[in-house]
């Protein structure tokens, strides 16, 4: 399925002198070594280090020459460290390839810095890319987003400046699929409530009639069967779940059969038959409020809605009403609009809702892989090589 | 069964925290004349000879020598769930009373809960939820991270029905699966889930990111995981227990968690249940505890009840008993 698609990208990539063949290595490693993915960045680092570079010699080699910091392409980031900045160890990774310029440094020395910046590394949706910023960066070539969602970027506007946008679809897929499964299991088995009972000072006995609902052999309806959706289907199959899916396009027969997924051309069919409905679409004008009052009332009253996409895919007010009136059984949300919700929002008080703080890719491994994927994309743009994951405006 | 009285079956009570489920009573009363402990104690002389079976729901009523002596026509004790560590099998056998459990029906729910605990612990789900709803939360920090389950190494201690179902699920997360068991499974069974046998539990403990206990409690497995075993585990590893609390030396576990000898624990079972409210396990940040809910779904509990009914009917009729437990 994916393996065959991605291998088409493994055309020999013409090397420009002095530039590392990073993009090629990255695509290849991603596709080939999924089982060894925990070692992937180590392999990449080893190759990088073994390049036969030698300072002072004018050798043009296929590997990266050791370059002085200022010669490295400039990348703008919001900040290093703190609560919203790029994590320290990611900054170290970026520094291997780029001259890192923080927003503060840029604003203090706009004239000099603005020309150096060829790329922006957007981490946790920051820095905000607005017209003013784009106008002040004449040499900007690419915005490398960490993460797969780009709904926070005005793609048309950015494109009008001749700037490319890239995201990181490969790095996010496994951890986000895992969170989807984690939320489905936690909600079905009432895990959070259970933990509260287990530790509550008021608990004297465990009631034997305290029950959840089954996941094994239940019906899972996946709305949005992209990379993440497909990985969820692979996992759910191992729980003997019956899998329905709705997608803009139908997947190939072999792909469907591999996970036992049945296509529902009409989303309504999926909603009516599913015990668990999981949203795994990207946020676009077409998917904004995809799930509203009508869709919620089509769902079974025993069903659970799980959202690992974007908060705005759901009409949140309609969701609150549906949960309060028991139109559906429960919801499990990794994403809301906004994040965090206002502290007096009704969703925070409902006992049939679990919310997690947008942690779909919040693992040590994923954060690192996202940075690596973004770096590979940025370098590909700057070196005029095929770009692993460019995002185009509609 | 025309003209014949339904067999008398002793239960603890109906409803409440420990009793037989109200919505199961209808089905049971089609087959049995249910006698609660209260009714029995009020009318021992008449009822003691009539009782042919005990329907033991969540370890109640407690069966001791005194009770056995006063029920001369007791044929069978049907126990809910798969664990039978709460029963004195030799004592029951000495009275000629047979025992049954419900071993297979609990497997998928318990395996599901094992996966739920592993995911919740690794991704810090409960902590994350608390942050998401806390009145003090102003933003979600970027440096708040968990650890990945996909691609990690899972060591399953006890590869029976439940352990194997956990392996089937974990395989879909591309986990590397090691297992330790009294005996090695057949090659086809191992290949089907990609599980590698560790004859020595030490090897499993040293290599696993997640150690999941799926063994039954016997005198041999009591305190299977103690100080030594915890020290063999990686400092980044998580212990998951879906078996019985007594498999783990709880004091050693507390110490290991406090000193970060291991990273975290996720326990559906403890000893006792519930733990005393001042127990250190309740206060540790790197522990999640659930209230023994391995088989706690409506469907499974219903099927358990139906299986127990079948076993009791067979036991009373002197026929081969489904899911009989031998001493």
UniProtKB/TrEMBL annotation, chain A:
What range(s) does the D-isomer specific 2-hydroxyacid dehydrogenase NAD-binding domain occupy? 181-360
Presence of keyword Oxidoreductase:
yes
Q: Which Gene Ontology CC terms are recorded?
A: cytosol
- Oxidoreductase found in the keyword field: yes
Q: Which GO terms describe its molecular function?
A: glyoxylate reductase (NADPH) activity; hydroxypyruvate reductase [NAD(P)H] activity; NAD binding
The record's comment on protein family reads:
Belongs to the D-isomer specific 2-hydroxyacid dehydrogenase family.
Provide the protein name: Glyoxylate reductase/hydroxypyruvate reductase
Automatic annotation (TrEMBL), chain B:
Q: Matching SUPFAM superfamilies, A to Z?
A: Formate/glycerate dehydrogenase catalytic domain-like (SSF52283), NAD(P)-binding Rossmann-fold domains (SSF51735)
Tell whether Transferase is among the UniProt keywords. Answer: no
Q: Which Gene3D superfamilies match?
A: NAD(P)-binding Rossmann-like Domain
For this chain, one GO molecular function annotation is: glyoxylate reductase (NADPH) activity
GO CC annotation terms, alphabetical: cytosol
Keywords, in A-Z order: Oxidoreductase
Please state which protein family the record places this protein in. Belongs to the D-isomer specific 2-hydroxyacid dehydrogenase family.
Instruction: Name the chain's protein.
Output: Glyoxylate reductase/hydroxypyruvate reductase
Lineage of source species = Eukaryota, Metazoa, Chordata, Craniata, Vertebrata
- Gene symbol of the encoding locus: LOC113988172
